[in-house]
Write a structure and sequence with these properties.
CATH topology: SH3 type barrels
Strand content: 35-45%
Mean pLDDT: 86
Strand order of the largest sheet: 4-3-2-1-5
Number of helices: 1
Helix content: 10-25%
CATH architecture: Roll
Low-confidence stretches: none
């Protein structure tokens, strides 16, 4: 089970690291994911000036380019 979980996290890291996101409180400020913390459901994100914000909850983030992240069963 742990091996499968690690494999899924590695795939998730490959898919989502470097993704452009924004904080819901700051929708005009683009950020980039630097590191994903799967167990705490947070990410470290970086702004264009190089400032890194650590452990930002996934509930506070949204993808900048939402159209690129639809699952197969979601409407476009």
């Amino acid at each position: 089970m742990i091996e499968a979980r690690s494999s899924m996290q590695a795939i998730g890291d490959w898919l989502f690291r470097g993704s452009r996101v924004y904080r819901l409180a700051e929708p005009d400020r683009m950020l980039t994911t630097v590191k994903i913390h799967w167990d705490s459901q947070t990410s470290d994100v970086e702004d264009g000036a190089g400032s890194v914000f650590y452990d930002v909850s996934w509930d506070e983030l949204e993808f900048w380019d939402l159209e690129g992240f639809h699952l197969a069963d979601e409407p476009n």
